Amino acid sequence: MFRILIIILFLQIHNVVIAGVKQSNASDSLSAADSVKIYRLSIESNLENARVYFDTTFAGFTPLENYEVKEGQYEIKIFNPKSLKDWEGENEIIDIYVDRDTTLDVSFRYFYYFNTTPFDAEVFGGDSLLGSTPLRLFRENTLTGTLLFKKKNYKDYLYDIKDYDFETGANIVLQSKGKESINDVVYKDRITQFKTKRSLVTIGALLAASITTGYFAINYKSKANEEYAKYLITGNQATLDNSKNNDTYFVISLVLMQAAIGGLIYFLFFDK
Q1: How far apart are alpha carbons 153 and 120 in whole angstroms?
Q2: Where would I find the H helices in the chain?
Q3: I want to staple 206 with a disulfide (CB 3.0 to 4.6 A). Which of 163, 192, 215, 264 is the partner?
Q4: Sign of the alpha-carbon torsion through 246, 252, 258, 261
Q5: Exposed, middle or buried: residue 55 (CB in 10 Å: 0-12, 13-18, 19+)?
Q6: Using CB atoms within 10 A of its CB, is residue 162 exposed (0-12), middle (13-18) or buried (19+)?
Q7: φ, ψ for residue 54 (rounded to 5)?
Q8: Separation between Cα atoms, residue 191 and residue 194, nearest integer Å
């Protein structure tokens, strides 16, 4: 009987101890749960719809607001939505320990891809050479205006940036100049670009004729004025006749001078 009482007492003590241990474990679990802190993380970027990953977990697209995470170390990856599918070099990777509500501001550079057929064409933006095709450009701001593509023996190509597609880039086919490429040759032994040579003898003769007839025209007109002035004073008919004759010679000289000047212009500036 005494042994039975001892066994019952032992079992009661054992149950009390087990219950205390369980209560202690439950209390520790509640304490641990209370110690886990949740923070809110927001991510903004200059480009919308950038994909955001926390380690390997997809969190959403920018702008990402009040995304809840536990306190701890994270690797945040933000993928540029404007990159070409086969060019993902402009992405942001941020290592951060989150221990408070945080807002991140990510600025992407704009990526442009230009290619031409044939390749190795020079690309100019305004007066600046941007490079040769295939050309990859990163810019803090979007490009505006037009770009000029130049390649020897091919026609220049003006490209309007408004037509640019960030998904595919720009692929431009240049047109050959064909026979026009001959015009690119400069002949050093020619002073001008005329198709025929200038006749220096003819040009010289016409120049001399222009000067001579101009001199005679001025001289005859001066004499005609003098004779007419004498006629007004004396009333002599002979002086009036001389004035008229000199006026006639003046007109003839003037016509010859104009003809000589016309011939000079023709032989100087026009191809035959």
Answers
A1: 13
A2: 2-35, 200-234, 237-269
A3: 264
A4: negative
A5: exposed
A6: exposed
A7: -105, 110
A8: 9
Q: Which long-range contacts (CB under 8 A, 24 or more apart) does 179-186 make?
A: 180/155, 181/153, 184/152, 184/153
Tens of pLDDT, residues 226-267? 888 887 788 788 888 888 898 898 889 888 888 888 887 887
CB 221 within 8 A of CB 250: yes
Rounded Cα gap, residues 29 and 21, in angstroms: 12
Question: Using an 8 Å Cβ cutoff, are 71 and 83 in contact?
Answer: no
pLDDT, the chain, mean: 81
Rounded Cα gap, residues 69 and 83, in angstroms? 28
- Whole-Å CA distances, 263 to 200, 208, 218, 253: 13, 12, 21, 15
- The Cα–Cα gap between 147 and 160 comes to 7
pTM of the model: 0.45
What are the DSSP calls for 144-211, one per residue? Answer: -SEEEEE-TTB--EEEEGGG--TTT-EEEEPPB-GGGGGGG---TT-SS--SS---HHHHHHHHHHHH
CB atoms within 10 A of CB 222: 12
Report the C-alpha gap between 101 and 121 in whole angstroms: 51
CB-CB contact of 74 with 59 (8 Å): no
Whether the CB-CB separation of 66 and 42 falls below 8 Å is answered with: yes
Q: Which two tokens stand for residue 180?
A: 């026009």
Of how many residues is the chain composed? 272
Task: Name, in order, each residue with C-beta under 8 angstroms of 156's C-beta and a sequence gap of 6 or more.
Answer: 148, 149, 150
